[in-house]
Amino acid sequence: LELAGILLRFSNEQQASAWGGERGRLVQDCRYGKEAAMLSKVILGRGESGRARCILAWSKFLDGEHGSAAGEFCAALTSLVTEDPQMLEEA
């Protein structure tokens, strides 16, 4: 799950400034989005995880699948309340 989060981090140019300005060669929109989504799906195959579902949602959003991403965000909300309140705010 941590690796999926890191891959997503380097795939989101909009959030680069929040992480210390990692732009340019390191951060590019959807650079590792498919890999982050794949890892999230593996984790979700083992059991429900709000954090994994949220990473999957962001990956889909960055890949332009906005409708599917919205469904994943909604599905993540109830789990994130107890799992990771900070990620809940981001979702």
How would you briefly describe this protein structure?
The chain contains five helices and no strands. It is mainly alpha-helical. The model has no long low-confidence stretch (mean pLDDT 80).
SSE blueprint:
Blueprint: H1 2-9, H2 33-46, H3 50-62, H4 66-83, H5 85-90
Helix pairs in contact: 1-2, 2-3, 3-4
Q: Structural class given helices, strands, pairing?
A: mainly alpha
What is the molecular shape? globular
Q: Enumerate how many helices there are, as a single number.
A: 5
Distance between the termini: 16 Å
Whole-number mean pLDDT? 80
Provide the succession of SSEs: HHHHH
Q: How is the main sheet built?
A: none
**Count of individual beta strands:** 0
- Give me the Rg, rounded: 12 Å
Helicity level: 55-70%
Proportion in β-strands? under 5%
List low-pLDDT spans: none
Description of the structure:
- Helix content is 65%, strand content 0%.
- The chain has helices spanning 2-9, 33-46, 50-62, 66-83, 85-90.
